[in-house]
User: Which sequence fits this backbone?
């Protein structure tokens, strides 16, 4: 990609039992029956609300969403949009570069970790495969083509090819999620899944011949976060909600920003994208190993600090957590368009402190609007198509029944 706090004190109710669904691609509406996984991350739980008295499909009452995860996804997608808005400012502002590097350390790892957490029961069952295709593969194809035509028009580049094997801009996350979810059964049977996934990432970062097909460098280098999410439990999220963790996270974030401020002129932020090998970045292979391990550790720590400050109760923005996939994919047109059309060059004041604040607020407001229910209704045909015509009648019947029983 080239590119909130509820005081609970020491006595608070534990997180509700996990409802195994697909959470987040950075976010989408998903079924919530226990043991069910849907394609999305960017995939989600129902916002807390009284359970419907009526049963759907005759199988049981609708399940509730968990406000904590919807809040986390919304806040993370706001950080994604703001970081994209900061990118053009980083060449002239060391402060913007430091904030950019800090946010890039944890915003996508947080999404990916949540995606893994809600993919734990994924298998090759028909309804889950249907949701994987309609909720991940189809949006990938649609937006890969849409982004290509947008670049041809906005960047006056009629030669830009349509290539489903070479994800462009934000679509890498969808193809990565597709691959990660297919590998879930494997991670469940190996003895040391997280260390193994980390070894795969290390091998990837020292393998320049992997190439760009399916953005495999990113798929493999980000994979440890997905696998880590697969093996998290509700009590792990409860642990980071402890008061002492929230207090400790403040100096940790402050130190992270100071470290990023020091590192800004000394290292390239391309390391945070995880899309190239060490050799392609012009450094020895062992530097790639060290950087991968260091970034993994920093990302896990900052992600935990981020979760520590995510509200658990329902907020005004909780409902937007179900639409973060929409915000993620749609805001990319504006983020790229601002570069193609030279907005940051035409308005030099945007590079001053007041301009940096302005673009941050605009980015947050735009992505918030794109996560709203009205936008989801308009673009649901592309991001959540039913496509019953494409699957066998018995398979779609099973998928519909399970979706109905979980309040989909």
Assistant:
């Amino acid at each position: 990609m080239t590119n909130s706090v509820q005081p609970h004190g020491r006595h608070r109710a534990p997180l509700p039992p996990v409802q195994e669904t697909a959470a987040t691609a950075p976010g989408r509406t998903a079924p919530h029956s226990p043991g069910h996984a849907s394609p999305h991350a960017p995939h989600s739980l129902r916002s807390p609300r009284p359970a419907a008295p009526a049963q759907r499909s005759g199988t049981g009452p609708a399940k509730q969403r968990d406000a904590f995860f919807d809040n986390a996804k919304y806040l993370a997608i706001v950080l994604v949009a703001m970081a994209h808005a900061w990118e053009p400012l980083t060449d002239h502002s060391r402060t913007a570069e430091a904030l950019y590097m800090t946010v890039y350390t944890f915003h996508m790892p947080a999404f990916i970790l949540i995606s893994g957490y809600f993919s734990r029961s994924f298998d090759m069952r028909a309804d889950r495969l249907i949701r994987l295709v309609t909720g991940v593969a189809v949006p990938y194809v649609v937006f890969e083509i849409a982004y290509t035509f947008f670049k041809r028009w906005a960047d006056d580049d009629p030669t830009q090819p349509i290539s489903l094997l070479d994800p462009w801009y934000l679509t890498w996350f969808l193809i990565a999620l597709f691959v990660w979810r297919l590998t879930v059964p494997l991670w469940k049977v190996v003895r040391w899944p997280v260390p193994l996934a980390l070894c795969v990432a290390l091998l990837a970062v020292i393998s320049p011949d992997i190439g760009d097909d399916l953005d495999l460098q990113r798929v493999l280098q980000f994979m440890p976060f997905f696998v880590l999410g697969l093996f998290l439990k509700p009590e792990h999220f409860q642990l980071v909600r402890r008061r002492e963790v929230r207090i400790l996270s403040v100096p940790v974030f402050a130190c992270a920003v100071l470290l990023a401020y020091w590192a800004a002129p000394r290292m390239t932020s391309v390391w945070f994208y995880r899309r190239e090998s060490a050799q392609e970045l012009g450094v020895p292979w062992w530097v790639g190993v060290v950087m991968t391990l260091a970034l993994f550790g920093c990302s896990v720590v900052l992600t935990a600090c981020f979760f520590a400050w995510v509200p658990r109760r329902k907020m005004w923005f909780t409902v937007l957590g179900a639409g973060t996939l929409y915000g993620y994919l749609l805001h990319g047109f504006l983020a790229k368009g601002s570069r193609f059309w030279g907005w940051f060059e035409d308005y030099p004041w945007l590079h001053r402190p007041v301009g940096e604040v302005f673009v941050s607020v605009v980015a947050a407001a735009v992505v918030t609007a794109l996560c709203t229910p009205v936008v989801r209704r308009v673009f649901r045909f592309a991001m959540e198509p039913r496509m019953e015509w494409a699957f066998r009648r018995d398979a779609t019947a099973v998928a519909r029944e399970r979706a109905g029983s979980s309040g989909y």
Observations:
- The two ends are 31 Å apart (CA to CA).
- Confidence is low (pLDDT under 50) at residues 1-24, 28-62, 404-408.
- The CA atoms of residues 20 and 35 lie 5 Å apart.
